[in-house]
Amino acid sequence: MPRMVVSIDGVVIKEVELTKERTTLGRRPYNDIVIDNLAVSGEHAAFHMAGNDVAIEDLHSTNGTYVNGKAVTRHELRNGDTLEVGKYKIRFFNEAEDPQFEKTMVFKPGMVPPPVAARSAAPTTGPAPLSGFGSAGGTAITAVIRVLSGPATGREVALTKVVTTIGKPGVAVASVTRRHHGFVLAHVEGPEPPELNGARIGNDPVPLKDGDRLALAGTEMQFVHV
After folding, report:
1. Cystine design at 143: which of 28, 159, 192, 223 (Cβ 3.0–4.6 Å)?
2. CATH numeric code, 143-225
């Protein structure tokens, strides 16, 4: 299901799934997505959904609607696009564009993951995830992210769910997603994407292999298959 994650100053404030053919965004309370800020017009923009395809239309807003830094009047959205409405940033996710991409989840500090179907789980006695790094839940461990630098050196983040987010909210966030063929790394938030084996990754998810070195927000890590 196409969805959007709305944030301001790096803090996620809401997540919205697109379920209707037309979804409106604006300051007025009758909009489907309400952003109560004077930089946002009363009826600012509309999302049009046809199947898995989504387009955004600017409704003659005062301050304009931007996609990936460019002003648009109507634009077909792609998975990972970043929209700007006033000071708000909206990250668009549509994993249906890639049939191998499993459903992702975005969590912020304090959010509780929704319940998942019970699976056989191996007990873990390892250290808890470090501050600023979050795992999306608890099923059997198949891989971990091991911290190699900083005050949390030696700690491990278990990759127990479909998606695990790592990083510092508001500074730099990346995700590690489990696919049928293995794990992939993707940039989620921040001006600079993570480094993989010394090279910055691009906009597309990149596969991970045992022993790969990661760097994000000044922290060195290693991907380890267990």
Report:
1. 159
2. 2.60.200.20
